[in-house]
UniProtKB/TrEMBL annotation:
It is a single-pass type II membrane protein. GO terms for molecular function: signal peptidase activity. This is Signal peptidase I. It holds the Pfam family Peptidase_S26. PANTHER family: SIGNAL PEPTIDASE I. It comes from Tigheibacillus halophilus.
Amino acid sequence: MAKRKRKKNEWLDWVKAIVIAFIIAFVVRKFLFTPIIVDGPSMMPTLHDRDQLIVNKFNYHFETPDRFDIVVFHATKKKDFIKRVIGLPGEHVAVKDNVLYINGKKIEEPFLEEKEGDMQSYRVLTENFTLEELPGNYKKIPKNYVLVLGDNRSNSVDSRILGLISLDQIVGKTSLLYWPLNRVQLMGE
Protein backbone atom coordinates (compact mmCIF):
# COMPACT_ATOMS: atom_id res chain seq x y z
CA MET A 1 0.00 0.00 0.00
CA ALA A 2 2.78 2.47 0.94
CA LYS A 3 4.65 1.61 -2.26
CA ARG A 4 1.56 2.35 -4.37
CA LYS A 5 1.02 5.69 -2.58
CA ARG A 6 4.66 6.65 -3.12
CA LYS A 7 4.35 5.88 -6.87
CA LYS A 8 1.17 7.98 -7.06
CA ASN A 9 2.90 10.90 -5.29
CA GLU A 10 5.89 10.59 -7.58
CA TRP A 11 3.58 10.67 -10.62
CA LEU A 12 1.79 13.77 -9.27
CA ASP A 13 5.15 15.49 -8.67
CA TRP A 14 6.10 14.90 -12.30
CA VAL A 15 2.76 16.24 -13.55
CA LYS A 16 3.12 19.35 -11.35
CA ALA A 17 6.68 19.95 -12.60
CA ILE A 18 5.61 19.65 -16.24
CA VAL A 19 2.60 21.96 -15.76
CA ILE A 20 4.76 24.56 -13.98
CA ALA A 21 7.38 24.34 -16.76
CA PHE A 22 4.70 24.95 -19.42
CA ILE A 23 3.30 27.91 -17.47
CA ILE A 24 6.76 29.46 -17.10
CA ALA A 25 7.51 28.91 -20.80
CA PHE A 26 4.17 30.49 -21.75
CA VAL A 27 4.76 33.56 -19.56
CA VAL A 28 8.34 34.02 -20.83
CA ARG A 29 7.29 33.72 -24.48
CA LYS A 30 4.13 35.83 -24.14
CA PHE A 31 5.54 38.70 -22.09
CA LEU A 32 9.36 38.63 -22.12
CA PHE A 33 11.10 36.99 -25.08
CA THR A 34 10.08 35.30 -28.31
CA PRO A 35 12.00 33.85 -31.27
CA ILE A 36 11.68 35.16 -34.82
CA ILE A 37 13.11 33.99 -38.14
CA VAL A 38 14.12 36.62 -40.71
CA ASP A 39 12.07 36.13 -43.88
CA GLY A 40 13.75 37.65 -46.92
CA PRO A 41 16.65 39.95 -47.76
CA SER A 42 15.20 43.30 -46.61
CA MET A 43 17.64 43.66 -43.70
CA MET A 44 20.82 42.67 -45.59
CA PRO A 45 23.69 43.03 -44.87
CA THR A 46 22.85 43.25 -41.14
CA LEU A 47 20.49 40.28 -41.04
CA HIS A 48 20.30 37.46 -43.55
CA ASP A 49 17.33 35.45 -44.75
CA ARG A 50 16.59 32.64 -42.24
CA ASP A 51 18.65 34.19 -39.40
CA GLN A 52 17.04 33.35 -36.07
CA LEU A 53 16.76 35.96 -33.34
CA ILE A 54 15.37 36.48 -29.88
CA VAL A 55 13.05 39.46 -29.52
CA ASN A 56 12.94 41.29 -26.19
CA LYS A 57 9.24 42.09 -25.66
CA PHE A 58 9.82 43.55 -22.22
CA ASN A 59 12.02 46.64 -22.60
CA TYR A 60 9.55 48.78 -24.58
CA HIS A 61 7.13 48.63 -21.66
CA PHE A 62 9.53 51.00 -19.86
CA GLU A 63 11.19 52.91 -22.68
CA THR A 64 10.53 53.91 -26.27
CA PRO A 65 12.54 52.77 -29.27
CA ASP A 66 15.80 54.55 -30.04
CA ARG A 67 17.01 55.49 -33.49
CA PHE A 68 18.58 52.49 -35.23
CA ASP A 69 16.97 49.87 -32.95
CA ILE A 70 16.01 46.79 -34.95
CA VAL A 71 12.40 46.06 -34.08
CA VAL A 72 9.75 43.49 -34.86
CA PHE A 73 6.25 44.83 -35.48
CA HIS A 74 2.86 43.61 -36.62
CA ALA A 75 2.67 44.62 -40.29
CA THR A 76 -0.64 42.76 -40.70
CA LYS A 77 -2.76 40.56 -38.45
CA LYS A 78 -0.85 37.50 -39.69
CA LYS A 79 2.61 38.85 -40.52
CA ASP A 80 5.37 40.43 -38.43
CA PHE A 81 8.16 42.43 -40.08
CA ILE A 82 11.64 43.22 -38.84
CA LYS A 83 13.05 46.68 -39.67
CA ARG A 84 15.26 49.44 -38.30
CA VAL A 85 13.85 52.51 -36.53
CA ILE A 86 14.99 55.59 -38.45
CA GLY A 87 12.63 58.41 -37.48
CA LEU A 88 11.27 59.22 -34.02
CA PRO A 89 8.25 61.26 -32.88
CA GLY A 90 8.56 64.97 -33.62
CA GLU A 91 11.14 64.50 -36.38
CA HIS A 92 11.13 65.20 -40.09
CA VAL A 93 12.82 62.54 -42.22
CA ALA A 94 14.14 62.82 -45.77
CA VAL A 95 16.55 60.88 -47.97
CA LYS A 96 18.35 62.64 -50.81
CA ASP A 97 21.10 61.06 -52.91
CA ASN A 98 21.31 58.09 -50.50
CA VAL A 99 21.89 60.38 -47.51
CA LEU A 100 19.54 60.33 -44.51
CA TYR A 101 18.48 63.70 -43.10
CA ILE A 102 16.69 64.09 -39.77
CA ASN A 103 15.32 67.60 -39.26
CA GLY A 104 17.62 68.75 -42.09
CA LYS A 105 20.77 67.33 -40.45
CA LYS A 106 22.81 64.63 -42.21
CA ILE A 107 22.82 61.36 -40.21
CA GLU A 108 25.48 58.68 -40.69
CA GLU A 109 24.26 55.09 -41.04
CA PRO A 110 27.36 52.96 -40.31
CA PHE A 111 25.36 49.71 -40.35
CA LEU A 112 24.88 50.12 -44.11
CA GLU A 113 28.59 49.80 -44.84
CA GLU A 114 29.64 46.55 -46.44
CA LYS A 115 31.06 44.10 -43.96
CA GLU A 116 34.13 42.04 -44.64
CA GLY A 117 33.15 38.71 -46.13
CA ASP A 118 29.82 39.84 -47.59
CA MET A 119 29.10 37.73 -50.64
CA GLN A 120 27.12 40.45 -52.41
CA SER A 121 27.10 44.19 -52.46
CA TYR A 122 24.04 45.72 -50.80
CA ARG A 123 24.66 49.28 -51.82
CA VAL A 124 22.14 51.64 -50.39
CA LEU A 125 19.95 52.64 -53.28
CA THR A 126 17.18 54.59 -51.63
CA GLU A 127 15.04 56.63 -53.92
CA ASN A 128 14.77 60.19 -52.68
CA PHE A 129 11.79 60.82 -50.42
CA THR A 130 10.50 63.14 -47.75
CA LEU A 131 8.13 62.39 -44.90
CA GLU A 132 5.39 64.34 -46.67
CA GLU A 133 5.52 61.92 -49.63
CA LEU A 134 4.89 58.83 -47.49
CA PRO A 135 1.42 57.48 -46.66
CA GLY A 136 -0.23 59.88 -44.22
CA ASN A 137 1.36 63.06 -45.66
CA TYR A 138 2.87 64.10 -42.29
CA LYS A 139 5.16 67.10 -41.79
CA LYS A 140 6.59 65.57 -38.59
CA ILE A 141 6.30 62.09 -37.15
CA PRO A 142 3.37 62.16 -34.69
CA LYS A 143 3.61 61.14 -31.05
CA ASN A 144 3.59 57.34 -30.56
CA TYR A 145 4.79 56.60 -34.11
CA VAL A 146 8.15 55.77 -35.71
CA LEU A 147 9.45 55.55 -39.25
CA VAL A 148 11.15 52.24 -40.10
CA LEU A 149 13.31 51.21 -43.05
CA GLY A 150 14.99 47.98 -44.07
CA ASP A 151 18.78 48.05 -44.38
CA ASN A 152 18.51 46.70 -47.94
CA ARG A 153 16.68 49.82 -49.05
CA SER A 154 16.23 48.73 -52.67
CA ASN A 155 14.37 45.58 -51.56
CA SER A 156 12.31 46.39 -48.48
CA VAL A 157 8.64 46.86 -47.66
CA ASP A 158 8.85 49.48 -44.93
CA SER A 159 7.44 52.89 -43.96
CA ARG A 160 7.86 54.10 -47.52
CA ILE A 161 5.02 51.71 -48.42
CA LEU A 162 3.34 50.88 -45.09
CA GLY A 163 3.44 54.37 -43.62
CA LEU A 164 4.48 55.16 -40.07
CA ILE A 165 4.39 52.39 -37.47
CA SER A 166 2.47 52.86 -34.24
CA LEU A 167 4.31 52.01 -31.04
CA ASP A 168 1.34 49.69 -30.31
CA GLN A 169 2.31 47.61 -33.36
CA ILE A 170 5.84 46.99 -32.08
CA VAL A 171 6.36 43.52 -30.60
CA GLY A 172 9.85 44.23 -29.30
CA LYS A 173 13.52 44.85 -29.98
CA THR A 174 15.86 42.22 -31.34
CA SER A 175 18.36 41.30 -28.65
CA LEU A 176 20.24 38.20 -29.81
CA LEU A 177 21.03 36.58 -33.14
CA TYR A 178 21.48 32.92 -32.18
CA TRP A 179 21.42 31.05 -35.49
CA PRO A 180 23.42 30.31 -37.56
CA LEU A 181 26.13 29.74 -35.00
CA ASN A 182 28.85 31.47 -37.04
CA ARG A 183 26.82 34.73 -36.83
CA VAL A 184 25.86 34.66 -33.12
CA GLN A 185 25.84 38.19 -31.73
CA LEU A 186 24.10 40.53 -29.34
CA MET A 187 22.07 43.03 -31.34
CA GLY A 188 22.39 46.75 -30.82
CA GLU A 189 25.63 46.46 -28.90
